[in-house]
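Review form for a predicted model. The reviewer records the input and the model, then writes brief findings.
Reviewer: anonymous (R2)
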Amino acid sequence: MGVVQGVGFRPAVWQLAQKLNLAGSVWNSAAGVEIELWGNIERVEILLQKLQNNPPPLSIIDEIKIQPLSTPAPDSLAVFTIRESREGKITTEIAADAATCPACIDELFDPTSRHYHHPFTNCTHCGPRLSIIKAIPYDRSNTAMATFPLCQACQEEYNDPDNRRFHAQPICCNECGPILTKGSITQIAKDIDNSKIVAIKGVGGFHLACDATNEGVVERLRERKQRPQKPFAVMVKNLAQLSHYATPNPTEIEALKSSAAPIVILKLNSTIQKPPLAHAVSPIEQSVGFIFPYSPIHHLLMDQLETPIVLTSGNHYNQPQCIENSTAQNQLTEIADSWLLHDREIINRLDDSVMRTLGGKIRTVRYARGMAPKSTPLPAGFSQQQSLLAMGAELKNSFALLKNGRITLSQYIGDLEEGRTFADYHNTHHLYQQLYDHKPDAIVVDLHPNYLSSQLGRDWSAQQTLPLFEVQHHHAHISACMVEHNLPADTSPLLGVALDGLGYGESSEETLWGSEFLLCNYHKSQRLAHFNAVAMPGGEQAVKEPWRNSFAHLAKAIGMDALQQRYPTLSITNFLQNKDLATLDKMVTQEINSPLTSSCGRLIDAVAATIGICRETISFEAEAAITLEAVAKTEFDQAQSADSLEQYPFTIGSQNGCSTIEWGGLWKALLDDLAEEISTARIAARFHHTLINAISSMAERLLKEHQLSTVVLSGGVFQNSILLEGVERRLTQTGASVLSPQHFPSNDQGIALGQIAIAAARCV
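Model under review:
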């Protein structure tokens, strides 16, 4: 059981059986791969040992079950065969899409190979998997390749157990495979060289591409795509070309070269870029997401180009990536100047996965192509019987299935507020339930009443008369990390620190949380501490317009009259004077569309806007936070090394039985810095230093008070490298065991993983 179909597992078994003179057969079934063996028991044990120690590159063996055969041995003890697939109860897993392997790359550029320059070449070690699958078992008839009959040469390779393309379901060549239906790779390369924007149908969806060194065309892409600030990813030909722009560490290189082939965010070298990347590639920070070619189309294209290319998703702002030719040509016509289309259907949309080094470890920021849908086991002590469906969060959504004691997290879906993304969420749910033959015993949702994921989960629960579990957002963040670190079901309560934008709380005093210190295990959580709550004037509008958070924090800390009297010349003072302060004050004091929130994300937005960063509005989620981190980074690193950073004042108080961190002193000191014309970078660095110390001080206090030894750090705010590294370092120095997400994202994409674990604990 495990990821054992479409990865060369059966031929590996066949080859071992031949060498060991064992009789029997091997076949695909709904349960995985099944093997019948007759022969010397020691040789059987050798075969199993070799499979476990050296499985095929893309395979994952979760479990091997052994039982004696009741049937007699065949006439010839030297005969071992590969048999046709069998249907049945589905327990196997689905392989993730894999980057083109070295052997296929060699053939791609070998003029003597019949796979020479074939844009869709693949084998059992690489190529599309999840993106093309319709059903289990993973046979060609159940994939998008069903419409491409094999030519004689491919059929021979497909039937040959000694060939690496044996039963590789997407196998094809120039004679029988998919074809480019519009455009050519040579022409597309020329168009990129000639400052054009091109649309390319890839493996999991469409991309938009252009010359990453051409300022004018990158700016034009931003304008057409309506993406003014968010950094673009850049595809480079190889490590040699990447070395002109960044210096990845060995772990980052390993990630870039892995079968997942994710985007890896790297710090730019400021001096050795040749030719230099356009400033518009990453206008708000000195980091860029780099990616290597991962499909034959990409390899062939980059072979004809001398410069890196921008490679961004083929969509308009906040819409899902296009996967169909007709949809792309309809929606991207105003963006793309030319097209590269093919006729292989994309069944399952897959965005590029994203990774980044944080706290000295490579971590997943977006879990998608090449990673999903690998499963993870429930830790020890949970019941293995129930099947659960977790609906996930609203933003950065992924959902999760629990079956046979294993959790499968879907690929990144996106923000469900957009109608097409929500429709895609529906479709992907149905596909996964079909692929995994998943019939949930219960459904799990976030507490938030207005999340579309929660509303849909409640509807399905009612329609199917299934039990419904509602899980608090930040408890799910912490539990997801606990699952990743394999903490057992009976784990004693630990301290969870969850920092994010917003999550629906449990108390009656305030409904929106976002800076939570929780005493929790899988079964329950108790709120111990949080940031002092501040209003969000305009509700969701305050998420999009950071200045509203500045107003709320400043009004609470010192008052608008005092702001105007003490700091009349500050830009934030003048800015706010041009707003309708009377209406804003009425909204806050009378609680009109101004919910209270303890959100760390909104505090960061408030500080950013106050010092002049993303003040009026943001163009993408967390833009203010990302920009503030980038502004602070160099100053923070230099100051820390010289130990010269002063923290702003903060106080620890209490409210309704919880400890609170109060920021009045911070705001007074920060405004003084602005009045003294201290640099924006210095203020941003001091704020980060203060945030680290405040969080760490509260955590240390709670660890001691409750006699705890383990801290879990999670939530989207902990994707801030300064903050995560600082808090981890400070708490580790106290002797605490500090855990944080690595394989799964700490942002809301990981929520469904935690929802599953909490519901499973409640089922016991």
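Findings: The chain has 24 helices and 30 strands.
Further findings: The radius of gyration is 28 Å.
Recommendation: see findings above.
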